[in-house]
Design goal:
Blueprint lengths: L1 E6 L5 E4 L3 E4 L21 E16 L6 E6 L5 H8 L3 H8 L4 E16 L4 E4 L5 H6 L5 E3 L7 E6 L5 E7 L1 H8 L5 E4 L9
Length: 195
């Protein structure tokens, strides 16, 4: 199962010329004549990738009770976590606190030539009853029309292949697409991702 990377609609706007960059202007009125206007990727699925998930534990000073570091369960050390997630200790403290979280290692990133719409993927209709399924009076799968707050399962429209759709803020997705960030840190992940 692959991850689909969705760019949230929040500002700033994610665009691409040579590399991916962030832009606070909704309109591109300041682009010179003849120059290609960069496409806005917000609200689109821009890439897919393989992934591995690793638990992150917080290391606490036994005398003071203060968080002193975070580390993964395998070879992921605190310095690797900070560098590859583009976060520092203070940011992780603020986000994860003492509960720890998960490092999603992004691998084999494939950026789509043309960003995809949410409606290109389906989810299971949770309102459907067993009777409606058996009688086939209502479709089991419906197009996705709203992005998840964190992540959700979904299916490809043409292939039926199963994916995990993950919402990522533009500033973090920009770093992923430019190759600066290879770990996405989350408080929670879907259970199937831990297998």
């Amino acid at each position: 199962m692959k991850l689909l990377l969705y760019c949230t609609k929040a500002n700033p706007y994610l665009r691409k010329l040579d590399n991916y960059f962030l832009d606070n202007h909704k309109d591109n009125y300041y682009w010179s004549k003849g120059q290609t206007t960069p496409f806005n990727f917000n609200g689109k699925i821009v890439a897919e990738c393989d992934y591995e998930v690793e638990e992150i534990d917080c290391l606490i000073n036994t005398f003071t009770g203060e968080i002193i570091d975070y580390s993964g369960h395998t070879e992921l050390r605190d310095i690797d976590l900070f560098k590859r997630s583009c976060l520092d200790l203070e940011s992780l403290k603020k986000y994860l606190g003492k509960k720890g979280g998960y490092a999603i290692h992004i691998k084999n990133l494939h950026i789509f030539d043309k960003p995809r719409e949410l409606s290109d993927y389906y989810k299971i209709d949770s309102s459907i009853t067993l009777r409606e399924v058996l009688n086939r009076t209502k479709p089991v799968y419906i197009p996705i029309n709203k992005a998840p707050q964190n992540m959700m399962y979904c299916h490809g429209k043409k292939t039926g292949e199963r994916y995990i759709l993950i919402s990522i803020k533009p500033e973090w997705l920009c770093k992923i697409l430019n190759g600066e960030k290879t770990i996405e840190v989350r408080k929670k992940v879907l259970k199937e991702m831990l297998k």
